[in-house]
Amino acid sequence: MGDRNRPLKESKSGGAASAMATMRNLGRTFGAARINVLEKMGKRETTETEEMANEYKQVEETRTHLKDVYKKMLKANKSSAIYIEDQQLVAQAMREYGNKLATNGQHPTLAGMFVRLAEFQEYVDDLRAKLDFLMGLNVAEALKDFVKGDVRDARYEKKKFDRVRQTFESATENLKRAKEGKSKTQLQQAQEDYDQQKVNYERAGFETLAKIKDCNSKNNFETLEKACNYVDAYHDYFQKGFSWLSEMSTRIPKHRESIAQLKQNYGEEQKKRKHHLDVNGNLKPIVFGAPLPDICTREKVIIPSVITKSIAFLSSPEALETEGIFRVSGQKVHVDALKAQFEAGKNPDFPKTSDPHVISGLLKQFFRELPSPLLTWQLYDRWMEAYHASEYHEVRAPIIKQILTELPHFNRDTLKVLIGLCVEVTKRADKNRMTASNLSTVLGPNLIYRKDQNAFNMKGDLDMANSIVETLIDQYDFLFGGDAHPRPSKRGSFLAPRPQLSPSPSTSDVESDMSNSGNYPLSNSGNYPLSNSNSSQNLSPPQTPLAMPVTPPGLRNSANPDEISPRSPKGPPPLPPAPSPRIARKESAKETMLPEIEDEGSPSPSPTWTSPIHATGSPQSGWAMARVNRSSSRAEEE
Fold it and tell me: What is the secondary structure of 128-177 as a DSSP string?
C-alpha cells in the first residue's frame, strides 16, 4: 500500500518543485522588468560600471553618425546618377553642334572646340560614374555593413547584459527581503538564486564589455580605411581629369588669339551697325533713302544696282514704246514689294513680264527718296544761273557742262545713264507720247530742288528743275557724249524769266543790271527795243521773275554777261518790233502783271518790287496768269 502511494507522492512533490521554479522565474522576470521601467523613468540609477557605460555610449554615437553618413552618400549617388545622365545629354548636344558647324564649314575653330568639349564632358562623366561606384561600394556600403553588423551585434549584447544585470539586481533585492523575514526556506532559495544570478551577471558583463570594445576598436580602423578610400577615389578622379585638362590647355593660347581677333571683328561690326542707325536708334535704309555714295560703296559699284537693273529693263523696245512711260504710275503694291526686296539686300531681277510702269515708278521713287537731290543742294545756285542764262538749250549747254564737272562722280555717272534712257524714250515719242518736255516734268522735281523749299518758291523751283532736265535731254550728246558743240534747238518749254535773280546776287550784278536808265535791268543796245522812243514814260520794274518778259534770243557777251549780243544766224528769229506806247502799256500790264501806267503827264513811278501774292491775292493765280501769257506769246512767235 505504501509502495503504491510512493509514485503519487513523488509526483506531487515533483509538481510542486516545478511550480516553485516557475514562480521563481516569473518573480525574476517581473523583478527585472520593474527595475527596467524604473531606470527608464529615471527613478532608479543603473548599477552598470562606468567603463561599460562609456564604451556603450561610443557605440551609440558611432551608430548614429555613420548611419547618417552612409544614407546621405547613397542619396547623393542617386542624384549623381541623374546628373550624369543630364551631362551626357549636354555632351551629345555639344557634339551635334560641333559636327554641324564642321559640316557647314562655318567657324572651324569653334566647331573643333565644341567637339573637344563633348569629348571632355563624356570623359568626365565616365570618371564621375566610376567615382560614384567607388563611393557607393567602398565607402557608403561598407559603412552600412559595419553599422548593420558589428554595431548591431554590440547593441544586442548590451541589451542581453541589461536583462542579466536587472535580473541580478532583482535577486539581490529578494535576498535582502528574505534575510529580513523568518523563513529559512525562502532565505535559502533567495541565496541560491542570488549566487546563480551573480555568476550570470559577471559572465555577461565580461562578454558584453569585450563585444563593445571590439566594436569600438573595429570602428576606429575600418571607418578610417573607408575615409582613405574616399580620398583615393577623388584623387583618381581629379588626377585623370587634370591630365585631360593639361592636354587641352596647350590649345587654349591659340584659341585666346582667335578670341581677340573675333572680338576685334565684333567691335568693327558694332561700329558699322551704329553707322547704319539713325539718332533714334532705327535702322537706316540701305538703298531707298540712303546716300548715293554709301550705296555705291556698299555694293562696290559706280551706279547702284537698282538703277542699272531698272534702266536695263526699261531700255528694251517693249518698255520704251509703252505709252506714258514715267508719267503713268505703277501699282503701288508692286512698287513697294520690289522696294522691300532691295531694302532686304536681295537685289532681285525683273522678269520680262514686269510692268514697265512699276519699274519706272520704282526708279522715280529711288531718286525722290534720296537724302539729297541727285543734282545736289551745293550746286543749286549754279543750276539757277544756267536756268536764267537763256531759254535756248544750246545757250545753256556750255554752262551746264561746266556744272556737271563739279558734280560728285557717283551723281554724274548716275545722271548720265538716266538722261541716256530719257533720250531713248524721246526717240519713240510717237508711240509712248513722252517728249523731252513731258519727261522733264515728271523727273525734274525729283532731281533738283532747294533745301528750304516752301509754297512761295516751289513754283519757280519746279520751272527751273523741269527746264534744266529738258536741256540735259536735248543736249545729251554735247553734255555726255563726244559732240564738240551744242546742237541748235528751239526755245525750251519752260521759259526762264529775266532778269537773272540768283538767291544771293552780288553788288556788281545789281549795279550792272540797274545801269540801263535805272528802270530795266536789261541793256538796250537798240537791237531789241523795249519801249517806243517817243514815249517819255518808263515802265515800272516787273513784280516777279516769272512774270517778266522772256529773255531776248541773244547770246550773252563773254566780256560782260549782262549785255546781250545779237544771235548767230542759226538761232531763232528776233523778236518783232515794239508796239505803240499804249499797246505796249497794255501788253506789258497783261504779260508782266505790272500796274497800269498813269497818265502820260504824271511823273514816272519809282522802281519797286511787288510780289504776285500782293498783286493778285494768290500765288497760284499769278503763276497761272504768267504761264498763260507765256504760252500766248510763244504761239504768236511761231
Answer: HHHHHHHIIIIIIHHHHHHIIIIIHHHHHHHHHHHHHHHHHHHHHHHHHH
Nearest CA among 512, 361, 344, 499 for reference residue 442: 361
Cβ-contact 35, 44 below 8 angstroms: yes
How far apart CA 66 and CA 76 sit, in angstroms, is 15
Contacts for 278 with CB less than 8 Å, ≥ 6 apart: 284
Query: What whole-number distance in Å separates Cα of residue 147 and Cα of residue 152?
Result: 6
CA 361, chain centre distance (Å): 32
Task: Tell me the residue length of the chain.
Answer: 638
Region of 580 (left: φ > 0; alpha: ψ -120 to 50; beta: rest) is: beta
The better pLDDT of the pair 358, 636 is held by: 358
CA distance linking residue 308 with residue 123, whole number of Å: 59
User: Within the chain, what is the greatest distance between any pair of CA atoms?
Assistant: 204
pLDDT at 180: 83
By the 10 Å C-beta count (0-12 exposed, 13-18 middle, 19+ buried), 335 is classed as buried
* Tally: H helices and E strands in the chain: 23, 2
The x, y and z cell numbers of residue 390, run together, are 537763256
pLDDT tens readout for residues 255-309: 888 888 888 888 887 776 665 565 566 666 678 888 899 889 888 899 999 999 9
Integer-rounded Cα radius of gyration of the chain: 59
Q: What is the pTM of this model?
A: 0.41
What does the alpha-carbon distance between residue 627 and residue 617 come to, in Å, rounded to a whole number? 17
CA dist., res. 414 & res. 443, Å (int): 14
Phi/psi at 519 (nearest 5 deg)?
Answer: -115, -55
Sign of the dihedral defined by the CA atoms of residues 319, 320, 324, 329, in that order: positive
**29-42 burial string, b = 16+ CB within 10 Å, else e?**
eebbeebbeebeee
